[in-house]
Specification:
Strand order of the largest sheet: 1-2-6-5
Distance between the termini: 35 Å
Shape: globular
Strand content: 5-15%
Number of strands: 6
Length: 290
């Protein structure tokens, strides 16, 4: 996917790193694509159960839900985008995502805040608590920031076989999809519904993640002129690699749909493809019939 180079006035970027421990006053978190990826790294590298890893991360994040972050946002400017090809790629993607989504919010007369992109190395502190490179990219709704240690993309390619620029764009576009859910109020609605009916919590989480997948596809679909041969396959490979059934199968476990948090490989592929083929955010209603 050939993206134009970022517009410096169109992105908010900062450099992070060196933080450790839980951040005092950290805000609420959520399971994102990064949580799945840290679980995969734990499985492939350390032999850990990825589902237990996901549960542990989610538990920590849920403990801080609803609190306000005391972290000061100080965007350092776009010089951080020049730290390497992955950093430049992430900034280009963020600029394109802003260009794509902001007009839609304007048309719908919904206030739009651009998310912050924090590129960090090793570890950092987020509004959702401590973050490390092993977590992969994730979105924190408390400070409306997408966190990326771009070196993780190498791990994603090696361990998941999910290489290629479109696979990386899919990841950041998925996290941006969670930002869309935050701005529209969908994220708060889902959290409220989960608290009121814990028995549906996993199902609602799956629907939320699939919608973020669809939103990622919508972004690509609205920029179809930039898509190159092979991009679709890269995206499908990445989506298939992080399906709950694939995680469980790779962990040597019995497939357990009631424990799913992100959806099956087939579901993730379906919603990413639906968004890409339609380029229409109205086609991303994963909650119908619930």
């Amino acid at each position: 996917m050939k993206l134009n180079e970022f517009n410096p006035s169109n992105i908010r970027v900062r450099r992070g790193g060196g933080g450790g421990g839980s951040f005092p006053g950290g805000g609420g978190g959520k399971i994102g694509c990064g949580t799945v990826l840290i679980a995969l790294v734990a499985y492939f590298v350390f032999g850990a159960d990825p589902l237990q890893t996901i549960g542990a991360i989610d538990g920590i994040q849920q403990q801080t839900q609803g609190q306000q972050t005391g972290q000061q946002v100080g965007a350092e400017g776009t010089e951080v985008c020049r730290d390497g090809p992955y950093a430049l790629e992430a900034c280009n993607a963020l600029s394109s995502l802003n260009d794509t989504w902001q007009p839609l919010f304007r048309q719908a007369q919904i206030p739009f805040d651009q998310p912050i992109l924090e590129l960090f190395s090793g570890q950092t502190r987020s509004g959702c608590g401590a973050a490390s490179s092993a977590m992969g990219p994730f979105y924190c709704p408390a400070d409306q920031t997408i966190y990326i240690d771009t070196a993780f993309y190498d791990t994603m390619a090696r361990q998941l076989g999910a290489g290629g620029d479109f696979a990386r764009y899919y990841v950041i576009a998925h996290e941006y999809g969670h930002h869309i859910q935050k701005l529209t109020g969908m994220a708060d609605q889902v959290r409220s519904a989960q608290q009121q009916n814990p028995g549906r919590a996993n199902r609602l989480q799956v629907q939320m993640e699939l919608q973020a997948d669809c939103y990622a596809g919508v972004w690509a679909g609205k920029n179809r002129n930039l898509i190159e041969p092979g991009d679709m396959q890269e995206g499908m490979t990445a989506a298939a690699a992080i399906g709950d059934d694939t995680l469980q199968r790779n962990a040597g476990q019995q497939i357990s749909p009631e424990s799913f948090t992100h959806g099956t490989s087939a579901q993730r592929m379906y919603w990413l493809k639906r968004g890409l083929e339609t380029g229409n955010e109205d086609q991303c209603d994963t909650f119908s019939g619930t």
